[in-house]
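We now fix the convention by which a protein and its fold are recorded. Think of the row as the fold of the chain written in a discrete alphabet. Here is one such record, which you should read through line by line.
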Amino acid sequence: MDKITTIGLLLGWGSVIFCVAHEGGSAKEFWNIGAFILVIGGTFGAAMTGFSMHTMMQVPKIAARAFTGIKTKSKELITTMVDFSTKSRRDGVLALEDSIETIKDPFMKEGMQLLVDGIDQERMRTILENHISTTKTWYKEGEEFFKQLGGFAPTLGIIGTVFGLIGMLGKLSDPGTMGPAIATAFIATLYGVSTANLIFLPIGNKLKAVAAEDITLKKIFLEGLICIQSGASPRMTQQTMESMLHDAKGKEEPKK
């Protein structure tokens, strides 16, 4: 479980709730079922229009990654691959077959199976790189969907506010109702802006970060697999994987 995503969202919404309470407001003042349905329903409807049914079916699973993160850690992966390299050099590649069942990650399990089956290096690299490309697209679709939600939500909020203001202008004959009507009209904008900046865009950004980590680990695993197949020493396998990890971290750091 990636707790930082939950903590971040709770901190954001907690700040909003604190502000409302501090100003003496009540939850009832900020609730409007019509505005909620317009903003949330309209936002999802507008975003869904640009994606396929297959992508929509995958969105819940992709979104879950923002909260679960990547279970495989880089140091654990490198240690495991070095152990596999040691065993392969000592007992042969076929000795790794018993270790395949201990691997939970589907991508890594398939890679180890290809290694044990004796698939040639070029073919194995092509198969696994295709899987990496598919994974990258999978994450990208989820990221784009949440960014679309973040873009549409404020706009739908403004539309809701316009509807509210139109209704208010139709009651100018009763000035006493204008204040509450204006407040109600702006609730839709509040819903749109808050959900965009405190739910949709943060999740989209988190999916981008999780995707980068997952893809990096898969590439590191692939190179470790190639090292084992090539008969490289455990030390060389470790150095190759660690150098890729350092290079990946270096690219993520902003240039000064």
User: Anything to note?
Assistant: The chain has a mean pLDDT of 89. The chain has eight helices and no strands.
